[in-house]
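Sharing in case it's useful to others searching the archive later.

Someone asked me privately for the predicted structure of UDP-N-acetyl-D-glucosamine 2-epimerase, UDP-hydrolysing, so I'm posting the question and my answer publicly. Question first, with the sequence:
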Amino acid sequence: MGVDKKKIAVFTGARSEYGPLKPLLSAFQEDPYFDMELIVAAGHLSPSQGNTISEIEKDGFPIGIRIHNMLEENNASAISISNGQLQIELAEYLNQCNPDLVIVLGDRSELVAVVSTALFQSIPVAHLSGGEVTEGATDNQIRHAVTKMSHIHFPTTEIYGENIRKMGEEDWRICVAGEPGLDDVLHLVVPTEKEFRTHYGIPENTPFILSTFHSETINQTINKAFISELIDKLCSLTNYHLLFTAANTDVGGIEINETLLKTSQSNPRVSFVESLGKTNYYAAQHYASCMLGNSSSGLIEAQSFQIPVVNVGSRQQGRLRNPNSVDVAVDVNKVIGAVQFVSSEEFKDQYIGKPNLFGDGRASERILQFLKTIDWNNLLLKKSTF
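And my answer, the predicted structure tokens:
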């Protein structure tokens, strides 16, 4: 007699979490112990975020529901309204689907709606990338709230696992897995550099910077004025081409994206792409001279590509650092200086050949093995260790 499959519903609402989830989704799909489908919502279905639902469809993962919940307005109430709509439609889906487990990754605002809905419908939640610290953004509070409403935890490092224990979570619920998004870094086939440059209009033999700036949700110092001045000075003081990807759906993101689009239309040294998709984003990290901005991917992924990172502002304050990153304030002159510094041979000696502290390429394997051995019957009854 075969073992009953565990029905897994994996939520994704943004490109920033779909990339890291992709190796895990493939592992679920290949394992006969699990029956997995996706809950796709929010930014994936937004033209301003690149309609990244198309990438998911191309990858062929089963989609249980598409939830068009995102109100595209540049104010805080739009986020609350969008998440309220998400909760309404998700409640109906979970009632019909009744999965054994809902899986979420990270710290996006949508996750509060997702995990609280699952909580009230007595469906266990597994949270990936909990225990991390980003004191410069509201993501920090969201992440910790999600941890406390979850029943299984897959942090990326031992330090983050210990943070979860300090929050009162039981040790048997925690598996330090690593970052699943790193599982296919060394195996993913990417376009050649010539193909990549031709596709995105980056001149041959011209070094380029890969850049993503999100708004700072606690203080709005990453704004139109800063982005515009930074681009002007990078173009006048360096010879880099600038390849920007879009800011996310946080308040202030629309203004950043509108500034980047307008600038790219008038400045031939600036390219703006709403979403590169995972394959081309990895290609960009392979071929770029430097990463610049405040995206977590610079701190988590870039070391695996042996590329330096200039992390700007406080959005990632508190997150662990690989040796390839330099932190700098939201000050254009200091950013320019940091870009020049990370290009030096002196700095390269600090990170070339060093491992990535966020994972060794086996995260998905650890997650599936843990789910096969955990006590499913006692997941919902949580005890605090403090």
